[in-house]
Amino acid sequence: MKTRVLKTNKQNLPEVASAAGALLRKGEVVAIPTETVYGLAAQIFDEDAVHRIFTVKGRPQDNPLIVHISDLKMMDGLVQSVPECACELIQHFWPGPLTIIFKKTEKVSDVVTCGLDSVAIRFPEHPVARAIIDATGIPLAAPSANLSGKPSPTTADHCVHDLNGLIPLIIDGGECRVGVESTVISVTGEVPMILRPGIISLEEIRRWVPEAEISSAVFRDVKADEKVESPGLKHRHYSPGCEVILIDSDSRNYIEYLEKNAREGDVAMCFSEENERIAIPHVSYGKASSTEEQAHNIFAVLRDLDSREVKRILIHAPGHIGKALAVSNRLIRAAGFHVVEIK
Ligand code: TXA
Ligand code: MG
């Protein structure tokens, strides 16, 4: 199959969105930009199209998809009820990088939810994503548009790299602003529970929903046969082909660790303030003080290193508090939980 790449700008957005919408309505899958990462979209009422998302990505059949809407009315009939805490979340964070999990109705196919009785809904803020959902007129199921296990795509080039020849259309809306996937919170249980950290942090959510908690599964290596609320946590994620080690220490100890342990073929993935002091090949992923910058860059840097002859990536670990948890959660999974802690 030939994959077309269409670049969008303010002027051509209506045409581009309607071309994408026409393909999506026909049951094709299309890669689209969002403010977090690129998504691989199909309309939710066409089971074959949704099924094709899993085939194209090589996605495990037990990892459910997020349903994307461009208008609150699109949620009508898909969810059983909207609890009070969800109203707060919707009011303060939608449209934006927050996914909310509700109890689902029969209208949502098991192919989307992998047989779960809940459905994840997201109202993206990206104008191109919204224009495409509007043009389709149907909510879109969309996981990140990478091959399963690989770092999520934050540019159209990343999508081309993974999906060229597998899908008919990639919409190029430039670099994604946020760079890590949405925060996922479930409102189906007694306590609103964050299942995946993102740039909207627990602390921000607690301003409006003080009882919110974060699932313990977020912090550990979930086994393949384990039953967890968020199936996504148990799959291999964000991994470049080579070995990745996370070094959790201050700057001095990180640099000392590199001096003592680095071998031929190693690359350091450090903070920009450390560039001058590192003697081995290195690439920075943002300022130590800017979680936003780190989040924006991590997947592009991991992909860049993956494309070179790198044997090991030695990453200076970010913080774990607030928004930084979104970055550390991705990096710890990229490292397969291989962390060296230096106190
Ligand atoms: O920012 C994002 O969320 C991006 C863009 C494209 O919107 N999408 C994304 O989708 O990251 P994906 O498929 O890569 O991650 C979806 C996550 C997975 O961890 C999945 O297990 C979880 O959401 N999820 C989806 N539906 C769920 C459900 N009903 N219950 C629990 N977890 C669910
Ligand atoms: Mg993903």
Give a verbal description of the structure.
- This protein has 343 residues and is of the alpha/beta class.
- It has ten helices and 16 strands.
- It has helices spanning 13-25, 47-57, 84-93, 110-113, 127-136, 156-163, 202-208, 251-261, 291-306, 324-334, and strands spanning 4-7, 30-32, 39-43, 66-68, 98-103, 118-122, 140-141, 169-172, 183-186, 193-196, 213-214, 243-248, 266-270, 282-284, 312-316, 339-341.
- Helix 9 packs parallel to helix 10 (324-334).
- The longest helix has 16 residues, at 291-306.
- The structure holds threonylcarbamoyladenylate and magnesium ion.
Q: What is the general shape?
A: globular
Residue share in β-strands: 15-25%
Major beta-sheet overview: 11 strands, mixed
Tally the beta strands.
Answer: 16
Spatial gap, N to C terminus? 53 Å
Q: What string, H for helix and E for strand, traces the elements in order?
A: EHEEHEHEHEHEHEEEHEEHEEHEHE
In short:
This protein has 343 residues and is an alpha/beta fold. It has helices spanning 13-25, 47-57, 84-93, 110-113, 127-136, 156-163, 202-208, 251-261, 291-306, 324-334; strands at residues 4-7, 30-32, 39-43, 66-68, 98-103, 118-122, 140-141, 169-172, 183-186, 193-196, 213-214, 243-248, 266-270, 282-284, 312-316, 339-341. The protein has ten helices and 16 strands.
